[in-house]
Amino acid sequence: ALALALRAPLLLQLATRAGRVVGQLNARQTSAMNVANAIAAETLRESRAVAALGARQQVVAEYRAAVGTYTDVVAQTLLAETVLRFTSLLIKSVSEWVLLVWGLASVRAGRISIGLLMAFYAYERKFSQGTVVLQNMALELQSMRPTCARYFELLDREPRMSYNGTVPRTFHGEIELRNVSFDFAQHGLASDAAKRDRRHERADEDAGTLQGVNLKIRPGEVVAIAGPSGGGKSTLLLLLLRLYDPNGGQVLLDGADLRSLDVAWFRSHFGYVPQEPALLDRSVADNVAFGMPSPPPPSALSHVLQLAGADAFVDALSSGIDSRVGEGGRSLSGGQRQRLALARALARRPRVLLLDEATSALDAEGERHVLAALRTLNATTTVMVAHRLSAVLSADRVVVVVGGKVVESGTPAELSTAGGWFQRNFFPPIDPER
């Protein structure tokens, strides 16, 4: 009886300790699986680049290594569970044999009857089944602890920003940045998402950093943001969209701090075209209407496609505006994807239009068409990150950002003779000896 009484807590303690080990192994197993899946997804997404660069063997080796790590952890997990179950079975079998030997000896000595022994043995079998159930429950609970801890950590996490705020009655599109500073590292953004947002900046630690930026943009003004890569140009657009909050200073819309405004409200007045448009595996019409409360009427859809210079290639598609564009718009060229993204932004009839090198994949004729169309949006405040001279010259004003600071601001004509970064890079002196 004493051996049976000690067996239950011993088995539960064993299951608890083994469960912790299995839980840690399960966490490692999930991490290893995520690494392997990420390699596979990235390779499929960039399959053309992998083939063109002859990197097939490299990515296959990386994937095999990741899968190997995963299978090793799975093997360790199975080994730990097997050892636990074998040890539990051994303890259970030994205790039953001890009970049987002790019982038979007691029957022979006349201390108990054979009926009492059989009854006690039957009760022991029932008790043993309950112990096994408790042991399995303890093992499952301990195994799930890391996953549950991560789940509740995410549930308890407080949002970095509040999405609720005031909704002004009118919005004219005036933008102002007052002494704005921002740094991805100080903002605690070492995540993959933050790294993707820095993809157009330099690869060093200072990429995307802003330092004391002061800038005011009038309603309806077209402003080009120029400067070297990594200066923080794209970061400015992310702050205007309030995808991130600045570490210091204020971003103002019509004089109101962006943090005090309702996020859904002001974003509904923004149009944003990144350099790498995000298109879905849906029809052209669905991609243009994506994010809008209701799809635009056919006449409005046709109009924005014309403004973006996308009407010709859309009409040439097999099903026109009902043609699916493939995942990420893979069935379209880079220029076609940019035109479609621009049409989507224009369909929102934005008060503020943000363009992050939105014409970089267009040919000269296509760019001229788009820039001319943008000039017709008189009531729209336009901020465009640009590296091409043609795009810069189409702006009312050029702001040069170098090292996270505004170093020049003026009309293209003024800056072309100012002797600064703009003149050196867009209007370099001609060497007469060449």
Q: Mind explaining what this structure looks like?
A:
GO terms for molecular function: ABC-type oligopeptide transporter activity; ATP binding; ATP hydrolysis activity. With 434 residues, the protein is α/β, with parallel strands linked by helices. 53% of the residues lie in helices and 13% in strands. It folds into 2 domains: 2-156, ABC transporter type 1, transmembrane domain (ABC transporter transmembrane region fold, Up-down Bundle), CATH 1.20.1560.10; 175-426, P-loop containing nucleotide triphosphate hydrolases (Rossmann fold). It has 15 helices and 10 strands. β7, α12 and β8 form a beta-alpha-beta unit. The longest helix is centred in the N-terminal third of the chain and has 54 residues, at 56-109. It is elongated, with a radius of gyration of 33 Å. Mean pLDDT is 84; it is low at 190-196 and 198-206.
Compact description:
The chain is built from 15 helices and 10 strands. It is of the alpha/beta class.
Mind summarizing the main beta sheet? Answer: 6 strands, mixed
Helix content: 40-55%
Shape assignment: elongated
- The percent range for strand residues is 5-15%
CATH homologous superfamily assignment of the largest domain:
P-loop containing nucleotide triphosphate hydrolases
Could you list the spans in which at least 5 consecutive residues all have pLDDT below 50? 190-196, 198-206
What structural class is derived from the secondary structure elements? alpha/beta
**What's the total helix number?**
15
